[in-house]
Amino acid sequence: AGLVLAACGPMAAAEPTPALPPPEPPAPTPTGTPTPLPEPATITLWHTWEGEALEQAQAAFADYMALHPGVQVVLEHVPDLANRVLSAIPAGEGPDILAWSSEHLGRMAEMGLIRPLEGWVAPAYLEEHYEPVALQAVTYKGKVWALPASLETLTLVYNRALVAEGDLPRDTEELLARAQAWGAEHPGTFYFAYNARNDVEFAAPWIYGAGGYYIAEGPSVGLNTPGGLAGLELIARFREVMPDQVDHATVGALFKEGKLALTVGGPWMLPDLDQAGLDFGLALLPIVSSSGMRARPLVRVQCLMLTPNSAHPSLALDVMRYYTSPEVSARLAQARGTIPANRLANESRALQDLPRVQAFVQQARFGAPWPATPAVAAVWDPVAKMLEAVWKGSAAPAEAVQAAQEQAEATLRSLGMEPQAPREGFTPGPVKEFEPIPVAEPVEITLWHAWPREYQEAAQATLDAYTAMNPQVTFQVVRVPDLPQKVLEAVPAGEGPDIIAFANEWLGRFADQGAIIPLDGYVDRAAWEASFLPPAVEAVAYRGHLWGFPDTVKAITLIYNKEKLTEAEVPRETDELLALGKRWQEEHPGEYLLVYNARSDAYFSAPWWHAAGVRFVDEAGTVGFSTPGGVVAAQFLQALREIMPEEVDYSIADRLFREGKAAMTVSGPWYPPGLRSAGLDYGLAFLPTFSPTGRPGAPFVGVEALMVTASSRHPEVAVDVLRWFASPPAQVARTTAAGTVPSHREALADASVRALPDVQHFAEQARRGVALPPTPYLSALWDPVAKGLEMLWTGLATPEEAVRLIQERAERAIQEMR
After folding, report:
1. Average pLDDT over residues 667-685
2. What's the confidence (pLDDT) of residue 153?
3. Is 318 in a helix, a strand, or coil?
4. Highest CATH level, class, for 2-144+299-343
5. Topology of the domain comprising 443-554+702-771
6. Staple 150 to which of 296, 338, 420, 523, CB 3.0 to 4.6 Å?
7. pLDDT score of 39
8. How far, in Å, CA of 414 to CA of 411, rounded?
9. Side-chain-side CA neighbours of residue 700 (13 Å)
10. How many CB atoms lie within 10 A of CB 183?
11. Distance between start and end Cα atoms, the chain
12. Is 158 helix (H, G, I), strand (E, B) or coil?
């Protein structure tokens, strides 16, 4: 039996890809409007929803029906979902959609019971709409297998009658110290307790927060690692301050009776606390002192999966996208308190007034995705026994963690899976060499940013590490859409943040309008030039002053398919490139040696202009295209037309390269992760030498800079924070966590970063590049250069005419800016 609904609607079209410069690869165009059907189609969804959850789902789909009649949607409650799926789908039966937990996803994928969503939903749509941890939870073997609907995780729960929010412990050392003192001051009560004895899920925040992990794809068990051991040692210390009985029922009773100040729980426990009339609050789990990283609970995701039996997959995906949309996600959160997996819903005004939802969202952003791999079953029993042994004192943490590792790996082998060596954990702890300035009174530093989602956690860990060293300093970190405009509005009104983290190309405009302060007196330029890559220093220098701390660098490079070319065959000079490109088309019909957005993208054309001696624009607004070097560069750019397809942009180049129809492309550090996920064996090579001048191709180098605003009430503290943020150990931690390219020479020399060949390559390519000028006049160049390239490509202008037109149009645009 099920609810029958009707619905039909087109999938959203992809937004146009920005011409310059892409922070990450643009998304392929998603599937368009479904083909009209001769008769109503039926989409069946199997679920285990009950009670209010089912009622809210029914109401949501009823609204969908009213808006888009034409497709029948059947919601079928299936209590024994696992067995029904295993029997029905292989027989060609079963539903179009499964609503289930992400923990089942890997097994379902391995058995062919669900289909990956590549080609059906654009990556840009996924990244824009869903929380990063949610996407990680529904990703298996490099593919996304479901759309995330809601999140479940653990967080800190405290009794407001016993502890004020401002008195909560910031790290685990402070927590333990207060717990020990609490017992003496409040006999018969406890400061902190949870089911620490044998609950694997409740142990995860400390294991993962210390840098260990349970299991990763490979499979790789991460228990007997420095981080895993540190986490277990912390749990062993918890034993000293908790009651003997710490099962869920006992802990829950103590908390409701007012005999326990702090515990750990998930959203499922809140209704019971409300019913008991308890005044409680939610807060982030503390920082794990041994690593300097926030405790990382596992995040389970309730999601919608598409089965291979669906006769109308595009329609089924419309249903899935609707149910996981910002509007429906926000509606369910308001009605039931569910924690949306949709990032846009979580950032909506409607949910900003739901503190409980926001508390779990913030905690989930520090969390680790629930392992999707089927191999996770091999670790549950070993971890439970490990926890029990430490709790009972029958084994020391080092012995227990080794035994758990060995048992888990033995189980994997018995299942026919050979375990891989543990990977290094993420442990960005405080470093003794860095000493923060003393701060006597509490200070809150506000930081506005536009960081990519995958970078935010690493950046937050760096800030948390600073707070661990300097507890008086806390942070309000805000992702701000349209950040430049918001800064230019807020700072003059005295309402802006203390720190801005943004691309250096806006630095000059911020400086000219008085939105940021120069760092003279705070930093030494000679020391900076000795510490950071040269383009990184140049990128934050403007009108004789330094205005920001360099963070990461980005530059484009040559990327080749190792199945098409060996490293020795990659052209080293542009003349060789053109000659080989022509031969390649003759020897490989329908294929190309090189494809990239050469037709009209100024950013991607920059290496050749620079190698020819052209300077785009300087601080005075002087344009440098109409020169002999400009003509030579234009001749080469026009010659590229002979070895590439007539129609080529970023998306076309990406498709041809991934399909093996092009041996090489040009892109930046945002590109290789997608190639690895796709299983493409690629190599990196430096941009070839420009044959007419003998100079290497020199790409623009963009720098993510951190700037102190003129409205900051604590500039000395803000500068000190950035001194830590840009330091080698902090950059190393973020690089190993997020794969970004650091700007500090010592960070690049660190052993853990030297072990990352892609990072090393992009850093060296950046060293050979030219800093993206921070002058506001640069914005006047993008359109004239793009139009000049288009005229070269289509033959509407000679090289001489093209550079003259670029020069004239750029100068006219700059004059209008003055």
Report:
1. 96
2. 97
3. helix
4. alpha beta
5. D-Maltodextrin-Binding Protein; domain 2 (3.40.190)
6. 338
7. 55
8. 5
9. 25
10. 15
11. 71
12. strand
